[in-house]
């Protein structure tokens, strides 16, 4: 299987698409492409393929050895915590958790007058510590993960922080890049479920020595 394709026609389409993607990324990055590792370029290709937006080639930021840390965590069968159900549904991995609709999340949100996204990260504390957090939509969830790391020493092995939007999204990702947490993020307001899922599934493929 490559990029979700398993039939001959599907694989042909995926291969042709990736050839086009590679050329578009070269045009966007120019000589800067040499600053990226093979694995980083593979993940960037997945995002550009999944979004049909080559601008992501210059928007994706890798900080504090995220690929190395993510692979180690995945090989140790760590849990993955997603911010919403759509992100959870797209991840090809057995131990994926999402607490946005959990009863405890609703109760905690009402009690503390926070967003459910914030409350869900608190419900997920035991999974976040030494786990992988994937956030594609909720900047408040990302801010809470950062707070948990700083104030409660609940530190994930990797955060894929790519919330989309014009309110707090850019700021939350900038805050993530200013921590020591291994992370993959996007610069600016762009992001979302397709970006988050493309990145984590690419990392899962790398951990299994599969084609990215």
Shape: globular
Distance between the termini: 10 Å
Structural class: alpha/beta
- How much helix, percentage-wise, in residues? 40-55%
What is the CATH class designation?
Alpha Beta
Average pLDDT: 94
Instruction: Please report the total strand number as a whole number.
Output: 6
Flag low-confidence runs.
Answer: none
User: Which H/E pattern describes the elements?
Assistant: HHEHEHEHHHEHEHEH
* Relative strand content: 5-15%
The CATH homologous superfamily name equals Cobalamin biosynthesis CobH/CbiC, precorrin-8X methylmutase
Question: What layout of secondary structure does this protein have?
Answer:
Elements: H1 8-29, H2 38-51, E1 60-63, H3 66-75, E2 80-82, H4 85-90, E3 96-97, H5 103-112, H6 116-123, H7 125-128, E4 132-135, H8 139-152, E5 158-161, H9 169-177, E6 183-186, H10 193-207
Parallel strand pairs: 2-3, 2-4, 4-5, 5-6
Antiparallel strand pairs: 1-6
Description:
The protein contains 10 helices and 6 strands. Helix 8 packs parallel to helix 9. It has a single domain, classed as Rossmann fold (3-Layer(aba) Sandwich), CATH 3.40.50.10230. The model has no long low-confidence stretch (mean pLDDT about 95). The protein has a 6-stranded mixed beta sheet, with helices on both faces. The protein has about 210 residues and is an alpha/beta fold.
Explain briefly what this protein structure is.
This protein is of the alpha/beta class and 212 residues long.
Keywords:
Rossmann fold; 10 helices; 6 strands
């Amino acid at each position: 299987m490559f990029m979700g394709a398993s039939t001959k026609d599907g694989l042909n389409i995926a291969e042709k698409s990736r050839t086009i993607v590679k050329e578009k990324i070269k045009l966007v990055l120019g000589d800067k492409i040499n600053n990226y590792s093979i694995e980083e370029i593979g993940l960037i290709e997945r995002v550009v393929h999944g979004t049909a937006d080559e601008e992501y080639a210059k928007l994706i930021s890798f900080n504090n050895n995220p690929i190395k840390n993510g692979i180690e965590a995945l090989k140790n069968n760590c849990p993955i915590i997603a911010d919403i159900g759509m992100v959870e549904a797209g991840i090809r991995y057995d131990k994926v958790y999402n607490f946005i609709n959990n009863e405890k999340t609703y109760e905690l949100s009402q009690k503390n007058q926070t967003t459910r996204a914030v409350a869900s990260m608190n419900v997920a504390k035991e999974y976040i510590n030494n786990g992988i957090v994937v956030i594609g939509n909720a900047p408040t969830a990302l801010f809470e993960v950062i707070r948990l790391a700083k104030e409660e020493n609940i530190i994930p092995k990797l955060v894929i922080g790519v919330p989309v939007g014009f309110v707090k999204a850019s700021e939350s990702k900038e805050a993530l890049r200013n921590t020591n947490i291994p992370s993959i993020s996007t610069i600016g307001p762009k992001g979302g479920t397709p970006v988050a899922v493309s990145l984590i599934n690419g990392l899962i493929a790398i951990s299994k020595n599969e084609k990215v």
